């Protein structure tokens, strides 16, 4: 399912006696309860949008697996989607699809989490599904044989990542002799030996109410929700749990790992063992990591003085232990040794002399502010509670906040001295490899034929059928206020009071391919790289210190952003505008960024990903299409600072700019502050053209880009399509795409390629519509010997969409997905900001999602069939493969 090695999320928990209590924690209404069977429950009311997140967290993961079977918990997670007594896998897939939101799971070392993000109206359905799956799971050997193929594709995908290979070796070295020595993913050999009976035993042992924690966050009635939880889960018996695995960590022995990478740049890592999430020193470790990772710290300084393309520090924590990682990035062909030496010196100084107390103070403020920002999304709020309670054993996020606030510089320095011992460091150097030349080919992708029987309609259980009986366009919770300032800048304000923060999202509509003179390719990247060097009135350190003082996150450029506590919104807007309108653009910095960009470009031109995208673009577009323009190192090195300044003057215009403000702010106040900060910005001359022109239909083709580091092939089957973002046909294509690729297991492509034939792990379909052109694409990953079979099934499914109307069940399900996604698009500040920004830049009304919902509601199956017959060309796909040569 969904692996997230560095994601902040997992479970939730608390332990109170029978009954419930309601407390105000962090400004939210929080209801806590423990059922008689031991199930711990937290309900956090969040009225940002009519959306709810449910997270069922079982306190068992890869730590608890049998010896020699590292992926057992992961495999059980997969099988939980294959059905339970009273709920078949097809019904489960159809229910998840109808809900329209996120329905997935992830396995970590100590927790396996199952979650829904769905419209609040579907809470009862989500809880009933979670209840049935706690009671039991179908572990049919035949189903496991099918799922084994999919999970092995996931293993292949991750083993195709050099970064994952390094991470696996790092864990083995850092945590030898403990459960942390392996990732939760599992291995192909172990899966081949795993039986359905073993998986059922794991489920029956660990999936118990007294080993589970349920968190519910969203726009719900807490009392009614708790009553429903008791009704659904109260009758499930508790179990006697086995002993937990012991952790006896051995001293880490210094080692250097060298690996190739398919990235366009190389990486240097220095890894150290650090305190885990449940340690009393965790908050200190968090502050230490953030202080060392500060833009004002010496590791980041490697980027600004030209030592490295990037430098930083990050932490990856598990309950019993964690990792601290310093990282430095070098260009292809560059020497990693000077970067490694500087990183070692920086950490040695931190160990011997301590960390700048000003950086410690700033890191504490930032970490506390970040907890407040978590409230700005429904699932983010649930994850914050999950992380605090399940992973850290804390009472609430406020407990973590208090621990962070209590950290002292002395504690940080003591931990640095204890941690950064070179005798216990794991060093890794990942060196970029060239891809090899792309090859055109006819040896794959079309010989096989599959007689896939028509899908049978799924009969939903009565309780689900009733929940989904009525389809309607949901009422938007957004009430944005839009202004056009005298200089042409568009400002949109969406007030929200869920947290004491404000987030700002901005974009200037530019297009280097259409606006940069010939021979100046790469100028936009160089210009963007100069903004972090400060403003005309403040150097980069002074500017970053000003941001740190108000706990703000800021970025400038053609896309810019600000996240700041609402009390400091005025100061934040001034700093953002100063950076955006008065960048320093110093000559010394230009030389550094120019060299770095040229190095990145040199590596990129030989990287598999770039060659894959370029090859696909050349196959789809005319030879002289501006979208095929790309920089070379020679182009970048021929640039001058004056050319970068000219490009800035030409392209940075207020009349091509939209700013969206979301958060605790009055619209009139926001307008006053934005106009005050950006009002003197003026545009000259007519507006430039920034949209690509229409293109003719492409011819079919095939190409392969070698990638020696990959075990699995990545495949795109794409074509140009005459559907733009203003074309009414886009609604029918989008609806049909949900039938093909939406709704998890319930989509045609997933059923056909994954369920029936075990060819792929995931498959997706997309329409990328621009103002004058569009691209239609099906993407999947599979083993080299399965590319042809999977590709043939894709073509067959597209033709079927043209030859016959989709079924009533599929049409209804697809409509339900798209209609229910409308409120989900309003369930976080980021989603709100991105949606309003995109609509404004495309010249659409701000209620366009409601308009789209009405179109989806009224579409018929023949209209979907007609759109696919008119616009999609199954025999004109370009099949692009990145990885090993396909077989067969």
TrEMBL record:
<dbReference type="InterPro" id="IPR050361">
    <property type="entry name" value="MPP/UQCRC_Complex"/>
</dbReference>
<dbReference type="InterPro" id="IPR011249">
    <property type="entry name" value="Metalloenz_LuxS/M16"/>
</dbReference>
<keyword id="KW-0732">Signal</keyword>
<protein>
    <submittedName>
        <fullName>Insulinase family protein</fullName>
    </submittedName>
</protein>
<feature type="domain" description="Peptidase M16 C-terminal">
    <location>
        <begin position="639"/>
        <end position="816"/>
    </location>
</feature>
<feature type="signal peptide">
    <location>
        <begin position="1"/>
        <end position="23"/>
    </location>
</feature>
<comment type="similarity">
    <text>Belongs to the peptidase M16 family.</text>
</comment>
<feature type="domain" description="Peptidase M16 N-terminal">
    <location>
        <begin position="40"/>
        <end position="186"/>
    </location>
</feature>
<dbReference type="InterPro" id="IPR011765">
    <property type="entry name" value="Pept_M16_N"/>
</dbReference>
<feature type="domain" description="Peptidase M16 C-terminal">
    <location>
        <begin position="195"/>
        <end position="365"/>
    </location>
</feature>
<dbReference type="InterPro" id="IPR007863">
    <property type="entry name" value="Peptidase_M16_C"/>
</dbReference>
<dbReference type="Pfam" id="PF05193">
    <property type="entry name" value="Peptidase_M16_C"/>
</dbReference>
<dbReference type="Pfam" id="PF00675">
    <property type="entry name" value="Peptidase_M16"/>
</dbReference>
């Amino acid at each position: 399912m969904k692996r997230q090695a560095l994601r902040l999320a997992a479970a939730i928990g608390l332990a109170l006696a029978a009954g419930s209590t309601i407390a105000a924690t962090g400004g939210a209404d929080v209801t806590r309860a423990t059922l008689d069977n031991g199930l711990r429950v937290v309900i956090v009311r969040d009225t940002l949008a009519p959306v709810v997140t449910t997270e069922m967290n079982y306190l068992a993961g890869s730590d608890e697996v049998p010896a020699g079977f590292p992926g057992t918990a992961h495999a059980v997670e997969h099988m939980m989607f294959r059905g339970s007594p009273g709920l078949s896998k097809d019904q489960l897939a159809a229910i998840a699809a109808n809900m329209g939101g996120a329905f997935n799971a992830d396995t970590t070392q100590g927790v396996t989490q199952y979650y829904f993000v769905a419209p609040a109206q579907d809470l009862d359905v989500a809880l009933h599904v979670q209840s049935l799956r706690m009671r039991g799971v179908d572990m049919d050997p035949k189903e496991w044989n099918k799922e084994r193929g999919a999970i092995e594709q996931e293993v292949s995908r991750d083993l195709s990542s050099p970064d994952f290979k390094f991470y696996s070796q790092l864990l083995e070295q850092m945590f030898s002799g403990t459960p942390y020595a392996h990732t939760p993913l599992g291995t192909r050999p172990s899966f081949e030996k795993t039986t359905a009976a073993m998986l059922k035993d794991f489920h029956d042992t660990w999936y118990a109410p007294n080993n589970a924690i349920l968190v519910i966050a969203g726009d719900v009635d807490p009392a009614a929700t708790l009553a429903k939880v008791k009704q659904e889960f109260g009758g499930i018996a508790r179990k006697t749990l086995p002993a937990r695995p012991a952790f006896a960590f051995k001293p880490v022995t210094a080692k250097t790992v060298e690996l190739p990478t398919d990235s366009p740049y190389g990486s240097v890592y220095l890894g150290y063992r650090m305190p885990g999430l449940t340690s009393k020193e965790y908050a200190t470790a968090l502050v230490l990591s953030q202080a060392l990772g500060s833009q004002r710290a010496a590791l980041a300084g490697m980027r600004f003085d030209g030592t490295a393309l990037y430098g930083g520090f990050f932490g990856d924590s598990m309950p019993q232990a964690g990792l601290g990682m310093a990282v430095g990035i070098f260009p292809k062909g560059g020497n990693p040794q000077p970067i490694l030496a500087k990183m070692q010196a920086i950490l040695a100084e931190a160990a011997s002399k301590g960390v700048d107390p000003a950086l410690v103070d700033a890191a504490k403020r930032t970490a506390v502010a970040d907890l407040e920002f978590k409230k700005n999304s429904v699932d983010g709020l649930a994850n914050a509670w999950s992380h605090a309670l399940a992973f850290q054993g804390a009472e609430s996020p406020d407990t973590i906040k208090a621990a962070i606030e209590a950290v002292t510089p002395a504690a940080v320095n003591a931990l640095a001295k204890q941690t950064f011992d070179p005798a216990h460091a794991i060093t890794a150097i990942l060196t970029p490899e060239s891809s090899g030349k792309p090859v055109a080919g006819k040896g794959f992708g079309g010989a096989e034929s599959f007689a896939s029987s028509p899908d049978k309609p799924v009969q939903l259980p009565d309780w689900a059928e009733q929940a989904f009986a009525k389809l309607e366009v949901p009422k938007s919770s957004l009430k944005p206020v839009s202004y056009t300032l005298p200089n042409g800048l568009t400002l949109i304000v969406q007030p929200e009071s869920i947290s004491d923060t404000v987030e700002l999202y901005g974009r200037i509509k530019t297009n280097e391919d259409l606006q940069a003179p010939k021979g100046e390719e790469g100028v936009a990247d160089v210009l963007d790289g100069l903004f972090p060097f400060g403003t005309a009135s403040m150097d980069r350190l002074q500017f970053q210190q000003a941001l740190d003082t108000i706990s703000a996150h800021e970025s400038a450029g053609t896309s810019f952003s600000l996240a700041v506590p609402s009390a400091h919104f005025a100061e934040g807007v001034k700093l953002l505008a100063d950076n955006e309108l008065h960048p320093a653009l110093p000559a010394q910095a230009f030389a550094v960024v120019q060299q770095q960009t040229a190095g990145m470009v040199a590596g990129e031109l030989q990287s598999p990903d770039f060659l894959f995208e370029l090859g696909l673009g050349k196959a789809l577009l005319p030879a002289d299409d501006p979208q095929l323009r790309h920089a070379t190192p020679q182009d970048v090195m021929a640039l001058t600072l004056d050319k970068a300044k000219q490009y800035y003057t030409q392209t940075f215009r207020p009349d091509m700019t939209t700013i969206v403000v979301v958060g605790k702010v009055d619209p009139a106040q926001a307008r006053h502050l934005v106009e005050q900060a950006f009002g003197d910005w003026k545009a000259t001359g007519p507006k430039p053209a920034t949209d690509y022109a229409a293109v003719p239909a492409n011819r079919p083709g095939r190409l392969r880009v070698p990638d020696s580091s990959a075990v699995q092939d990545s495949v795109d089957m794409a074509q140009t399509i005459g559907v733009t973002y203003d074309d009414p046909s886009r609604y029918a294509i989008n609806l049909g795409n949900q039938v093909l690729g939406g709704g998890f297991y319930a989509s045609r492509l997933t059923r056909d390629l994954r369920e029936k034939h075990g060819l792929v792990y995931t498959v997706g379909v997309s329409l990328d519509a621009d103002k004058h052109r569009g691209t239609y694409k099906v993407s999947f990953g599979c083993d080299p010997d399965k590319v042809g079979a999977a590709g043939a099934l894709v073509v067959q499914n597209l033709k079927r969409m043209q030859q016959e109307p989709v079924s009533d069940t599929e049409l209804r399900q697809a409509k339900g997905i798209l209609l229910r996604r409308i409120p989900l698009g309003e369930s976080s500040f980021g989603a709100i900001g991105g949606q309003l920004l995109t609509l404004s830049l495309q010249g659409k009304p701000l209620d366009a999602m409601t308009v789209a919902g009405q179109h989806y509601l009224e579409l018929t199956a023949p209209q979907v069939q007609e759109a696919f017959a008119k616009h999609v060309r199954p025999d004109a796909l370009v099949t692009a493969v990145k990885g090993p040569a396909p077989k067969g």
